[in-house]
Design goal:
Distance between the termini: 68 Å
Largest sheet: none
Radius of gyration: 27 Å
Order of helices and strands: HHHH
Length: about 90
């Protein structure tokens, strides 16, 4: 696997925590960050896959604050059809 070098900015507390963890585990800070990123991306991709596979996630996609449309849709369609035929 090809590795690409990336630069990140850390605040002093983050760097201190990573340094301590690096020393405790006897691995590089790069390795710790790589593991954290891999785990985070795995979780993210799993959530995305579940969301795409879940048909219930479609519920509410077209939701609008105007509830009247869903309750009176037949009347509105009737008006549209009547107006089209009266022209």
């Amino acid at each position: 696997m090809e590795l690409i070098t990336a630069q990140i900015a850390l605040d002093p507390d983050q760097l201190q925590a990573l340094t301590e963890e690096s020393q405790r585990r006897k691995v590089s800070i790069d390795e710790i960050l790589s593991r954290i990123l891999s785990r985070s991306l795995d979780d993210y991709l799993l959530r995305q896959k579940k969301r795409q596979a879940d048909p219930m996630s479609l519920i509410g996609l077209g939701e609008d604050e105007v509830e009247e449309v869903s309750e009176k849709h037949d009347a509105y369609l009737g008006e549209i059809i009547a107006n089209e035929h009266l022209r």
